[in-house]
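Q&A FORM
Asked by: J.P.
Topic: structure of RD22

PROVIDED:
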Amino acid sequence: MEFHLLPILAFLCLALTSHAVLPSEVYWNSMLPNTPMPKSIRDVLRPDLVEDKSSSVDVGKGGVNVDAGQGKPGGGTNVGVGKGGVSVNTGHKGKPVYVGVTPGPSPFTYKYAATEDQLHADPSVALFFMEKDMRPGTKMNLHFIKNTKEATFLPQSEHPIIFSSEKLPEILKHFSVKPESVEAQIIKNTIKECEAPGTKGEEKYCATSLESMIDFSISKLGKRVQAISTEVVKETQKQKYTIAAGVKKMAGDESVVCHKQNYPYAVFYCHKTQTTRAYMVPLVGADGTRAKAVAVCHTDTSEWNPKHLAFQVLKVKPGTIPICHFLPEDHIIWVPK
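REPLIED BY: S.T.
REPLY: Here is the structure written out as tokens.
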């Protein structure tokens, strides 16, 4: 599924050279001096450094395919994370159940519920697990998927149309998207999720530029912040990963998590709550591949939709236990230094 971005990329080709310093990079250095920029941000900021330079971007690709069983055939809870939905196998015989998130709402929003229609889509984006299982020696079958066609940030001053549901007809026309198409529904849903009010205790904002993401994160956490994302040494096939020694809790119990959305250019759904714990989790694959995965644990889920995917996968009720998930490689967490 593709959005054609010739107008955007034509501008970017004129504005950038392979070694040009972008205004966004200048802003990063001025607001966050001596702070490394994670690869997930570099990839959406510098399209000239992304291997695939085609004139379109795919919707719904990337993420983590995950089978979180305990190594026993038919046992455990299996959650597929990758391309357009979440496959769930709760240990019973038969085929996995597929919970679609494209073009439906994202499982990274607390209001998300796995509907009957979404129980038959393709696999997609999030592994949910219990905090007590995040310890050295725990084994999970993971498949980290690289995004080959990234939607990139536009310079803050060059957005073609205001990001608003009121401007939806103009947005579709600008990107040559037919109003009745699946792509149009995806664009509509992304804007709708961004405009909807957050749950109790959640402060949310959709960043359409790096500058606005930095501003929101600093406004919630202060100026001494850092951005971190999941990083995998290389792309591999699905394999068993073991949590290695060195699981590290990040500073404080406040964070801003920014989830990459499906849109013709980069848009991140950023939200801050005071009921999260974030960890950096070292993983070692069966073939020796190493990964540093960001895990976010939500300690209060009492305001979540009772039909949220996590509750169905883990067979628990809202507000009973902390629920954790890994962040895909193109998502970002901001934490205090």
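FOLLOW-UP: The first strand starts at residue 2 and ends at 4.
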